[in-house]
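Objective 1b: paired records.
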Amino acid sequence: MDISRLIKRAALVAGAIVVTAGLAGPAHARTTTAAADTVALTFDDGPHATYTPQVLDVLAEHQVKATFCLVGTQAQRYPALVRRIVAEGHALCNHSMNHANMSTWTDAQIRADLTATTQVIRTAAPGAAVPYFRAPYGAWGRSATVAAGLGMARLGWTVDPRDWSRPGVDAIVDAVHAQLRPGGIVLMHDAGGNRSQTVQALDLLIPQLRADGWTFTFPPTLAG
């Protein structure tokens, strides 16, 4: 175990906090636990024909489960990947039909979009649970409230390595280590562009985090 990371982790456990309020992105996050070395991995914008299978392969190799935030149009395009995600024991999250900014939408508009997205996901994977909703861009508006009425917990994040910007594999890895707190929720992407750096970073991060004493879990649902 890297000694500097061990010292940092001990300090974080001693001062662990739960993020529960605010206006955007991480502010709508709920940590996975209040005082345990747990982390939840989440992947946005898929499924993607190239990168989602690669992410799934890495997760399978390391025996880690994650949450996939699916865009409805992508789920329509790649239903077999939706079924694979479910079959391999991962969780599903509604990420809207077209990755639109919902911050100014009415409740009725949001409800129609989320309902249609969930229907698309369940057409691909009949009976699949969709316990989470994540607002595109972290632009929540009324969407978290509407999603709760549809049985979905709002899914924010506490760690954002900005992998979508392709800053380099090492930069992604370092950002996760720097930002991670007990109960953290990591935002990454398996679609929306070239995600080869994300795949490589994930393959490095999982064994590093395990060596540092972290365990992998799912974010909390409305049921707790």
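Objective 1b, second protein:
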Amino acid sequence: MSLSLIFASCSKGENGEKGAQGEQGIQGEQGDPGKHGDPGKSGEDGIACWDLNGNGSADIDGSVTDEDVNDDGVVDALDCHGDDGDDGTDGEDGIACWDLNGDGIGTIAHGQKNNEDLNFDNVVDVLDCQGQEGNANVTRVDVPIPGDFSGFRFSTQMPDNVLPLSDYAYQVYIKNDDFPDRWIAIPGPIDGSIYTRLSFQDQDAPIITVTFYNSDNNSFHVVAEGDYEVLRYFAIKVNPDQASGKGGQQALMDQLKAAGVNPDNYNEVAAYFGYKD
């Protein structure tokens, strides 16, 4: 028997076309959870606020590193308070209640708009900050007459709380040194030889003026120093419908008459408006 061997050579052929993608396989089962990791190491303790040298010990030794700052024998959070700060700069002085124009000077100028002696006691102080006595519709105003006043006409500035003139009616009285126990109605007779007239001037600084006359010849009567002590008047808020012309004043007279009050009798008028001396 004979064996024949045949050797043949061949070259590599070209790649074939890519085949279609196969279907996705079935998802496998979830694996078991992993083990928890070991806990981390604890952080180092912080430095207490009182531990000035950071050694963790409360040092009370009287040295510059003594940590009992407040000297109470205990080192704790109370030793963490800082030293008191320096005092702040003093603030500027405020404006006094009587200083209406803010110039820091007490101005005594009776009858003028810049007058700050509102109670006419010749001193500018906190007493000039007080409002006038009164009730909802009536205000009483006292004007001391200077002891050295001499002349036939006395004028004084009116406070803002009884202005404007068109909103008020006024009932005015004066106290004479010869009759210290009674108030004399203005205008009208003082006695058999003297009488008064009353006027108001509505200007930048409204004023009320009392003028004295001799009854026998209607000439001006010159008042001697010290003859009169106080001018007092009631300012009565009037109904706006009555405020024009003399309507407000006449309405006041009608009101007093209807109540049986004599306008010339100060005590009756004061009681009617709820004022007591």
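The radius of gyration is 51 Å. The mean pLDDT is 82.
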